[in-house]
Amino acid sequence: MGFSLANIDRRVFYWILFIALMVPFLNPIGFPIKIAENTRDLYEGITEDSVEPGDVWVINFGYGVSAWPECHPGVTVCAKALLREGAHVILMGPHTDVELTYKHLLDTAKEDFDAATYGEDYVFLGYITGGESAIAQLASNMRSVYPTDHFATQLDDIPMMQDVNTWHDVSGVLSSDTGDWGGYFLTQWQEPYGVPMAQIGIAMLGSTGIPRWLAGNYFGMSVGSRGGAELEMLIGEPGDAIIAMDSISVSHLLIVIAVIVANVGLLLERGRRS
Amino acid sequence: MSQMLKREVVYAITGIVTVIMFLEYFFFPESQAWAEIIRTWSVIIYNISLGLGAVRLTMAHSMNVQRRRENWAFSGVLLAGLAIMLLTGLAGYFMTGQQTNNAIYNWLFNWVYTPLGATLYPITGFYIFSAAYRAFRARNIDAALMLIAGCFVILSNAPVGEALWIGFATVGEWFRFTGQVPGMRTFALVGTLGMIAYGFRALLGKERGFYAGGEE
Q1: What is the distance between the alpha carbons of residues A104 and A89, in angstroms, rounded to a whole number?
Q2: What are phi and psi of A60, to 5 degrees?
Q3: In this complex, which of A14, A133, A166 lies closest to B42 when CB atoms are compared?
């Protein structure tokens, strides 16, 4: 049996991808990145006139460790931007590894968190369960869901949380998601009460999130690693997402080449048979 | 009596809860103390279900190990992992009041869980690459159209696409916005209407799966 373009062993593809991905890490290419309107809207919604010092913002870590490459760069930029505007940030998340993500954020936005004070500028409420009901309950009574922060301090004893207990006290929500949690904030915070919200989602969530951004439910949206890279460009601090863009370029291009090779092989086989 | 508990009481509770939550959400937001109590209970029940899930998981995998079923070794690894994380977490909690103040627990989380989690997505990249080659074949005109659209969207999402030809970005964005958004809106609306219809059917007792795990 001879070689056929339509039947190449899958291990060949694994090796091609593995070797090809090495190239941008060893020798960065640096393709120019165009900033999408939805990402720009997100950035403008959390900077300058959109945020007043003392405003309280919720950042929901709706992603686990496995989605760090896609979601975390965007969250890092947003946390930096909000802290630089003097906003107070509430951090929380529905994944069991939320503490790791919180610690990772303290590391990736180190300078900004070092300059801020825990309990006064930001607070980590920790893990949340209860699905959409819990998010609805957060809007009406945060203390019934989180009597304490992650470190077992009563919310009443945290200076930043003294006057924060309902959606009235929150200026906006940023939900970074791999799944449904942004949708819960949408139906329980944004739609009934008009709380401004934006999503920092994995690339797959672009298809559900973009219609919401176009409808005005989200004031902005960052889609996948690309969105993170665009946010890094906007804040002017290149980070992990911009580095990853070269790998994304190589892998995406290889997928298209694989599709072309497969279909050329298919056509050749058909020609041979006929 | 048990049949009554299984059906009528479930329906009665569901009906009362539905009416309260419906009225609160659409007509009296923030003014219904009952709705708040129900939501609090919902969160508590959800948390209890997590514990119940852990117990059920332990029972099912213990049986796998005990009876040496297929892949029983994986069940053993799961049980060992569950026990180690539970015990180290609890030990840290009882000693310091914080479950995360335990060195073993932190080490396992930082140096086992994190690398494994971070590896998960990149591995899918390899599968997607070979799957794209094996599955994306233009066997008919519909498949060909989908493939062409997909290639444009893929290249518009990667900076290399614009570098090769600016048209990839323009056409890809057209597919993403003009092409995709109406479809997703229709999907969302139809899905929501379906959920409402399901809710009414459940309340009227026409959905068997709604109570007692679908048993008669």
Answers
A1: 16
A2: -100, 120
A3: A133
* pTM for the model: 0.90
Which of A256, A230, A251 lies closest to A37, judged by CA? A230
Q: Which of A4, A140, A170, A223 to mutate: most B Cβ within 10 Å?
A: A140
Domain for residue A15, yes or no?
yes
The sheet that has A197-201: what strands, in order across it? A122-127, A88-93, A56-62, A172-177, A197-201, A218-223
Q: Which residues pair with A57 in a beta bridge?
A: A89, A172
**CATH code, domain with A161:** 3.40.50
Within-domain flag for A243: no
Q: Give the separation between CA B207 and CA B197, rounded to whole angstroms.
A: 11
- Choose the mutation target among B28, B39, B181, B192 for the interface with A, i.e. most A CBs under 10 Å: B39
Domain ranges of chain B: 123-179
Range of the domain at A69: 37-238
A18 vs B contacts (CB less than 8 Å): 126
Q: Do residue A258 and residue B160 have CB atoms under 8 angstroms apart?
A: no
Tally: H helices and E strands in chain B: 10, 0
Total of domains in chain A:
2
No. of helices (H) and no. of strands (E), chain A: 12, 6
User: Given A33, A255, A256, which is nearest B159 (Cβ)?
Assistant: A33
What ipTM, to 2 d.p.? 0.84
pLDDT digits (tens, 9 = 90+) for B89-148: 888 778 876 666 678 888 888 888 888 888 887 888 889 888 988 888 888 999 999 899
Per-residue pLDDT tens for A114-157? 999 999 999 999 999 999 999 999 999 999 999 999 988 999 99
